Predict the structure.
Amino acid sequence: MKVIKCSNCKQWTDNDKKHCLFCGFEHHKQQKIEREHLKKPLDAGFPFIKIQQTDPIFIKAGKGVVLFFQIIVYGIVSLIMYLASSVVH
């Protein structure tokens, strides 16, 4: 039986149990949260502007123009990256 010191009540308790035998505090809660956070996929997409249905028409038009230029810029950057990577190989 492995024993650990509970981070909540500072009593020595069984490590094989999920919760502390004295206070009921969940062992390794922080490590569990960190593991779940690491399992989430990273958002590797481009941060495009979002056009909401509830936006007024002039805001939608402005966001549409910005979105158009975002797509153009990301396209140019992608082309430059493609050309740079093809030159290296």
Summary: The two ends are 56 Å apart (CA to CA). The first strand starts at residue 3 and ends at 5.
